[in-house]
Design a protein that fits this description.
Radius of gyration: 20 Å
Helix content: 55-70%
Mean pLDDT: 88
Structural class: mainly alpha
Low-confidence stretches: 279-295
Number of strands: 2
Distance between the termini: 12 Å
Oligomer: single chain
Length: 295
Amino acid sequence: MQPLLDADGRLRNGWRVLGFLGLLFLAGLAVSLLSHLWPRSLRPYVPTRWLSVLGVLAASWLGLHLEDRPWASLGLRLNRRFLGELVLGTLGGAALIGTAATLAAATGAVHWVRTPGVSLGDLGAAAWFFLAVAVYEELLFRGYPFQRAVDGLGFTGAQILFAFLFALLHWSNPGMTGASLAWGTLNIALAALLLGFCWRRTGSLALPVGVHLGWNWTQGSLLGFGVSGTTSQGWLTPLFHARPVWLSGGTFGLEASLPCALVCGAAIVLLWRWQGWGASSDAGPSGGASTASGS
């Protein structure tokens, strides 16, 4: 058996993922240099996180180009359906984290007060920033490397691997200690599974990007929780009561709470049962059957 090539004489998917990571590293060096040169006057309008998006887009494009795959196969078809799924996902992500917040409040763990000085403009700027975060992380965790892992390991194997990696890469976030480490790891992994199903059922990155955006923006910018441990000033400020931290997630955010686990679990079951927009559940991102060969 050839260690580099599969039965069809093509580079194995594992090596393609490693090649993508190499390209991403080179793109990251360029982005780091550009970030230092980026004018401060532009940063409120084009945050440096968008430069990182350009880096992962460049690595993805080159990987697809070397395989002679169309750009649309990545799940970035910028058409009316894409925009519709992006909006639907944003509303869905907001509803999911809003439900978790409602459950936390129902236990008596938290209530909110209005934060003085936060304007609608601040909410808009935060949405723009969180859109960049969502696009970057979905390209990285549901884009080219994930899709090549699906080709090599099958969807279930890729889901498990990338859920583990998604959770692992959050371990360095502020507040990842004690109970927050356990609940945060569980819920971030569940969120990765949820977002993977969003891609699987639509063959597009629009729905996962939207869910990611709506989730983060509602949790941090609207409700004032930490977003995976990263604190931000929200439209509302949560006031925590003398209840176990795992009921609200505390300063880490709702992602370290039992209500979040319940909401994510329910959403995953619904997406698992949903067969997509009239397509077979075996359809890959380009509409064809995904394979489990060539790992």
